[in-house]
Amino acid sequence: MNLNSIPAFQDNYIWVLNDEAGKCIIVDPGEAAPVLNAIAKNNWQPEAILLTHHHHDHVGGVKELLQTFPGLVVYGPEETQDKGTNRVVREGDKVNILECEFSVIATPGHTLGHLCYFSFPYLFCGDTLFSGGCGRLFEGTPKQMYESFQKLNKLPQETLVCCAHEYTESNIKFALSILPEDQVLIRYYREVKELRLKNHATLPTTLQIERGINLFLRTEDADLKDIIQKETSLQQPEQVFAWLRAKKDSF
Ligand code: ZN
Ligand code: FE
Q1: CB–CB of 77/113 below 8 Å?
Q2: pTM of the predicted model as reported, rounded to 2 decimal places
Q3: 42, 113, 123, 179: which is deepest, by most CB within 10 A?
Q4: Torsions phi, psi of 52, nearest 5?
Q5: Ligand nearest the Cα atom of residue 13
Q6: What residue ranges define each of the domains in the chain, with the CATH number in brackets?
Q7: Closest C-alpha to 120, from 92, 75, 160
């Protein structure tokens, strides 16, 4: 399989997996035009769409794609049923498309029905895990998002994390505001800034990289707890997570 990212809107990526014959899977097509262009240019034949959640920047292109390709199977959580989904999936389901078997992982937090799709090495995680950060809690609680992160953190370190937004630079900037002396973060920030200057994507990332640079995965980190200690005595991993999320909200 071959992994592609199509930029959309300001900072979205629409991920496409294609096989050698050109059959492809499209993830979270928030708009149709850039996808239709890429399909024409690469001579792809779309087989299926995977949807992570109901927000417009992830589902906005589905209906137009269905008009052009009426045979498309659209997998998504219940909350996307009125957005073109014709195969509702939930936690624990297996989705077989092309040569891939995707495990469906429920990751509530950003929305209550948010799903991630994993077929090694690919993880399509929508607006749950971002490189260096975590999705906003529009519908869920910090506890739910924390538990969603724990689920994703069980995947192999080589997992290619395909997030739906290019937020890495601002996320690392935030992380450095919390841990300004962290060498891993300082080094990574430099790399990311260079990539962004050339307008290159910082994604996909890997779970191994994220375990180093993503504070939301470092909730047991001693340096982080030292900092938090100055403000609160609540330092259970889940509380560290909630503290970070609240800080990020006002960053
Ligand atoms: Zn969203
Ligand atoms: Fe989004």
Answers
A1: yes
A2: 0.97
A3: 123
A4: -95, -35
A5: 2
A6: 2-249 (3.60.15.10)
A7: 160
| Short-list 169, 145, 160, CA closest to 241 | 145
The model's pLDDT over 156-205, given as tens digits with 9 standing for 90+, comes to 999 999 999 999 999 999 999 999 999 999 999 999 999 999 999 999 99
What separation in Å is there between the alpha carbon of 3 and the centre of ligand 2? 20
Nearest to 251 by CA among 136, 147, 112, 154: 136
- Number of Cα atoms under 13 Å in the Cβ half of residue 221: 19
Cα 208 to ligand 2 centroid, rounded to whole Å? 23
Helix (H, G, I), strand (E, B) or coil at 222: helix
Partners of 88 in beta bridges: 76
Q: Measured between alpha carbons, how far apart are the two ends of the chain, in Å?
A: 39
How many Cβ atoms sit within 10 Å of the Cβ of residue 108? 22
